[in-house]
Structure formats: structure tokens, C-alpha cells
Amino acid sequence: MTADKDGWTLSLVIPVMNEVEAVEPFLSAIDATLRDVAPRLEILFIDDGSTDGTAEALTAASERDQRVRWLRLTRNFGKEAAMSAGIDHAIGDAVVPMDVDLQDPPELIHEFVHKWRNEGYDMVYGVRGSRHEDTRRKRTSAGLFYSFFNRLSTTTIPSNAGDYRLIDRRIVEALRQLPERSRFMKGLFSWPGYRSVGVYYDRPARQVGNSKFNFWKLWNFALDGLVSFSTWPLRVWSYIGGVVALLSFFYIVILLTKVMIFGSQVPGYASLMTAILFFGGMQLISVGVLGEYISRLFIEAKQRPLYLIEHDSGADRKPLPQARPAVKVDIS
Ligand code: UDP
Ligand code: MG
Which of 153, 182, 260, 272 could form an SS bridge with 230, CB 3.0 to 4.6 Å? Predict the structure, then answer.
């Protein structure tokens, strides 16, 4: 928790990509619900390479409203990188990453803040209650992913918690120390530890615009998460290899005994073919898994920056306005 309890700042971090129609409704919703959630509010948008006039909408908003600040990345770096840029640049004592499409209900932030300030939690994450807005396929695959991930990884992530959460400055500083290029944020948020708690909510459908994630993107996202947080897929092959070698040894003994007793038998095309194809497949899968890790090592080794910033509307910013008049203490 921050030492400066009275003058603290809350930062909302909102990655946006081609969301021109969503910016204004988002800001009105924030104004309607979060006007005095914190003494100072920073509304930090990260324009992740939009091509549709989002930048103009953000410029207008930041000129009109001093609490709004926006960063423009030089191109589309993806939501995870954009969110990292926002978390790196946010000035708040607590930071809330959220989507612009109002799928993350702003009023929940009151509860986040309450748990953070009054109950001493360092992270308060939103947990999607019913997920009825998702298709059944998405719900099942998400469920499978969480149980698979938590079984394989030493970092456990809470099921059905998205990026929508409040994180204390201590966690923000911890996140800034994690240099990796594969930013699986759900995992990274959990990695530092600290005290955390979930808050249930119903996630509404997107208000305007379309989802930027299709099945293929989500699959790659899941793969990225697993590979970044577990070495089990890499190590499992030693065990599979061990079991196969052991079984093969018994089979060799059986075969040799048979040949010695009954003499050589030529038929066996089917079993030979099955074995060749099966083990060929297994070998390719294991090489593929190696490839997943090596490609990530390759990306890490290059040490390229995670994102590039083209413009920061807050580069020469004045201090954030106070939401409520500061209480004057008379010390005379
Ligand atoms: N987003 C982004 N960069 C991308 C894709 C998405 O900054 O490459 C932003 C998007 O503008 C939105 C948020 O990430 O504010 C969540 O995206 P979306 O609503 O499409 O995801 P979903 O809710 O369908 O998972
Ligand atoms: Mg959305």
C-alpha cells in the first residue's frame, strides 16, 4: 500500500486497437461511475497501431480532459505488449488494466479499491462468473486451459480471471523487472505473489466494435502461456522415451525368443508399418515441442524492445487534477 494515503493516484491502463467508436462511450462510463473513486485518476490509453482514427479520438479526449493521457506505439505490437507499455508508464499507486469495450464493468473498480485500501490486498482480480456471453466452445476450451496450465506450471493462475484487476505499485514494480518478450500477462500478474483476492462479476457482451481475437489467435496465446510458464512439455519426452524403450526391450526379448523357437517369420508388414508411423509421429511432435522452446529462446536472445513509443501525450504533462478539493491541515 502507498504511504501517501490521502493523495493517492489510480491509473487505468487501456490498450486500444481500432476502437474509434468505443473511446467516447468508455470515457462517459468512467465519468458516470468513477468520478471520485480516487483523489487522482489517470486514464492512460495505449494506441496499439490503430489505423481508424482512434488517435484523433484520443487526442481530442486528452485535450478536453486532463486526466486522459495516451501513448502511441509505432505499430501493432499486440495487446499484451501494449498493456506492458501502459503498466510501465502508469504513475498510479494502483493500476487497473482494462478493455475499452466496456466488457470490464467500471463500477467494479470501487470494490477493487475497497479491497486494496481497506483489506490490504495487493492484487484484486475480477473473476468472470457465468461466462454466459461466451460460446460453449470458448467456455470449454478456457476451462481445459486453466486446469491444464495449473497442473503443469508452478505459477498458478485463478480460473476465469482475465486481465481486469487492480494491482498495487509493488506488483507493478515487480512486473517491470520481468524482461521477457513473451508477455503472457495472466501468468506474469500471478508470478510476483503477494496477497490477492478475486471478485466475481458478470462480463457483458462487447458494446461496440468487434473482438480482435479469433480461435487461432487464442490458441497461440494459450500455447505461449504454457510454454512460458512450464518446462513440462519439454521434459515429458524423457519419460515417454523411457517407457517406450522399456516396452521395446520386452518386445525384443519376445521376438528373439519366438525366432529361436519357431524360426524366422517374414510376415509382419502391418506391425512394422504401425510402429514406424507411430514413432515417426512421436518424434516429430517432440521435435516440434523443442521448436516451440527454441523459437522463444531465439526471440529472447535478440533482446529487442517489447514495444516502441512514437508519441506520449503526457511527456510534458502537468500534475493530475485533484478529484476532490484537498483537505487543508491547519498546523498553526
Ligand atoms: N487490443 C489491442 N491490441 C491488439 C488487440 C486488441 O490493444 O492487437 C485491445 C482492444 O482494443 C481492446 C482489448 O485489447 O481494448 C481487448 O480486445 P477484445 O475486446 O477484442 O478482446 P476480447 O474481449 O474479445 O477477448
Ligand atoms: Mg472485449
Answer: 153
